[in-house]
UniProtKB/TrEMBL annotation:
GN (gene name): GIP_5
PANTHER family: GAG-POL-RELATED RETROTRANSPOSON (PTHR11439), REVERSE TRANSCRIPTASE TY1_COPIA-TYPE DOMAIN-CONTAINING PROTEIN (PTHR11439:SF463)
Domain of life: Eukaryota
UniProt name for this protein: Copia protein
Amino acid sequence: MRILRYLKNALRKGILFAKNVDHQSIEVYTDADWVSAVDDRRSTSGYFTFVGGNLVTWKSKKQNVIARSSAEAEFKGMTLGLCEALWLRLLLQDLGYLSKQLIRLFCDNKAAYEIAHNQVQHDRTKHVEVDRFFIKEKLDDEIVELPKI
């Protein structure tokens, strides 16, 4: 019943897709809330993606493991958002849009940014190693860029 009430009240709501020449650009904005859940101290991460300046996907998810730092929580969110962006890029390629543009991945955590660009693995960042290598590989292959915010 709640769904029907929502649909009835949302008749005039929607998402506007702007006409854009740069329709192949993909941007991902990620964020995480470190140890936000009081009951189990799991972090929540989320992202939203834009293709050609239009919002196309978004997600918020409680992380499966407890992050030991805010950087780790942010990194898990970055990985989640990047996977979505890579899927969108493959979808665009399947539709015939072969883009050479880099995916722009935005994260507001300085430590996560530095870890992503750092070539050296430290003991204190070993617990985020898999996510770091995944993001680093995409940076090195020039598939994604991580602008400083």
